[in-house]
Amino acid sequence: MFPRTLAVLFGLVVLAALAGGERMARAQGTGIAPRASKLARIRPSEDKTHFVREGTNERIVIWGFNYDHDDAGRLLEDYWREEWATVAEDFREMKDLGANVVRVHLQLARFMKDAEHPDEENLDRLVKLVRLAEETGLYLDVTGLGCYHKETVPGWYNDLEESARWDVQARFWKAVAGVCKDSPAIFCYNLMNEPILTGGDGKKDWLPGEPLGGKHFVQRITTDLRGRTDKEVARAWVERLATAIRSVDDRQMITVGVIPWAQVFKGAKPLFYAPEVCGPLDFVSVHFYPKAGKLDDDLAALRVYEVGKPLVIEEIFPLPAGPEETGAFIEKTRSHVDGWISFYWGKTIQEYEKAGDLKGALVSGWLRRFRSLSPSPPPSDRKP
């Protein structure tokens, strides 16, 4: 045979062997087949004041992007099969912008075929995403149980009562953690984006309120307290899902990304990070959008979430405050915050600038500002 033909055949054999190894590892319950990686796992420091690389005292500050949808509003699972090259390019672009973490938002309906059975095809795709993160030198904040597009949430899931719904959520997390557990690229498992309890109009709806940009980012964990306190329900839910994860993965960190009610209602106290609730959680994740002209109030609201665990601002963007005020907020919080995660929607700074519209100007300006604030900015952004 010609040398090129031999090389092609040899490559196919190697790829087949690697694929077989991945699937065998999955079948044997060992998660991702071990592979050399330049990443070290991230852990809370011994005194719980910051993050370190596992096995060292080397501090690491979390800096990155929410990769929740693209510029057209498509969720990751909508295009990661047919447009994998786009995903890979986006990861490289986020890395070039100074990121060390990417937050991905997994939709429950894409990972559970029914109440009992995970979707193996999308679990395989998740394994591929973890590999991409390893190769790019990025960590993943894996946020789960998304129901962002209400119209795609299965009827069988909406019809479940609380206990059965939690059972499905536990199976989701057991399946996801089962394929991610061996990778050092997993920064954390975020149980759910902005969970709330019951209350208000339409309290029987699991996805309350009007959508934001066509998406439901907030989700209830119960529609009936049944005589329980808020803290009792929150504690039971956190323990249920954390136990499911810990049954297959006892190494990766667990958190919950919450709305900072202390920013909305003066004097409000954390629910999911109350002492009675947050035991299984390794660090605090709060979603903080600074208000214009309210820097001191925002800083006071953030202090409520200093509970003796590392603190990450898992969502931040210059609305309603502008880029300068939002940047000033980041600077003022560096002494006690251990990470900031903004947003990346699949377009570069240059592409936004080329658009020539208000959105393009806002996002491109913020990406430049955020990049310059990175603890490890690209050389071109470092101050002399």
From TrEMBL:
It comes from the Bacteria. It holds the Pfam family Cellulase. GO terms for biological process: polysaccharide catabolic process. Belongs to the glycosyl hydrolase 5 (cellulase A) family. SUPFAM superfamilies: (Trans)glycosidases. GO terms for molecular function: hydrolase activity, hydrolyzing O-glycosyl compounds. Gene3D superfamilies: Glycosidases (3.20.20.80). This is Cellulase family glycosylhydrolase. Keywords: Glycosidase, Hydrolase. Residues 80-291 form the Glycoside hydrolase family domain. InterPro entries: GH (IPR017853), Glyco_hydro_5 (IPR001547).
